[in-house]
Amino acid sequence: MELHPGEDVVFEGHPSWRATLLFYFYGVVIVAVVTLVVALLASALAAVLVAVAGLALVVVAGFVRRMATSFVITSERLHIRRGVLAKRTQETRILRVQNVNTQQTLLQRVLRIGTVDFDTAGTDDSDFRFVGVANPADVVSAVDRAQREGAARTAQAPGLG
Questions:
Q1: pLDDT at 128
Q2: 13 and 91 Cβ atoms separated by less than 8 Å
Q3: Counting beta carbons within 10 angstroms of the beta carbon of residue 139, is it exposed (0 to 12), middle (13 to 18) or buried (19 or more)?
Q4: 26-63: pLDDT as tens digits
């Protein structure tokens, strides 16, 4: 993301590694089932090779999935980028953000992760969310800080006050 002149990064991050634990759990279960089938149909050596390759694939896929999503809050914009090969980017001006809501299930509270949902003026983009962020309250504070800085900058700009 290229910054505008005078624009500062207030928050930058990816989903927390704890947000990928469910992905890893399901991946390990699938690898275990496939390994068991291979052990019954082929040999123990083939089963060990399938298990090692499968676990390595799950770990790499989880890491890439996590790192392929980035969240940025600047003094002017909210920015979400997803994807490795195909990219999806969402962006809105920070002053258009009307409501910032957080959501945490019991498991997410235990893992200290959550979802921050942004309602913006004049859009129907209901999927403008930072999903799986660590400490969602810190993200809300960063948006509040960016909005205050943006409002102060607008008030100080000549001819706008």
A1: 85
A2: no
A3: buried
A4: 999 999 999 999 999 999 999 999 999 999 999 999 99
Q: pTM for the complete prediction? A: 0.80
Rounded to the nearest 10°, the torsion over CA 23, 9, 100, 136 is: 40
Tell me which residue has tokens 């090692």. Answer: 52
77 and 151 both lie in a single domain? yes
Name residues whose C-beta falls within 8 Å of residue 18's C-beta, 6 or more positions apart in sequence: 111, 112, 113, 132, 134
Residue 53: predicted pLDDT: 97
First to last CA, the chain: 30
Same domain for 135 and 82, yes or no, is yes
Nearest to 115 by CA among 95, 99, 135, 97: 135
Give residue 61's domain range.
20-65
Q: Is residue 149 very low, low, confident or very high in pLDDT (cuts 50, 70, 90)?
A: confident
Centre a 10 Å sphere on the Cβ of residue 136 and count the other Cβ atoms it contains: 22
Same domain, 97 and 151: yes
Buried b / exposed e over 46-77, threshold 16 CB at 10 Å, is: ebeebbeebbeebeeebeebbeebbbbbbbbb
Q: Two tokens at 105?
A: 């299930």
Of 14, 140, 134, which Cα lies nearest the Cα of 82?
14
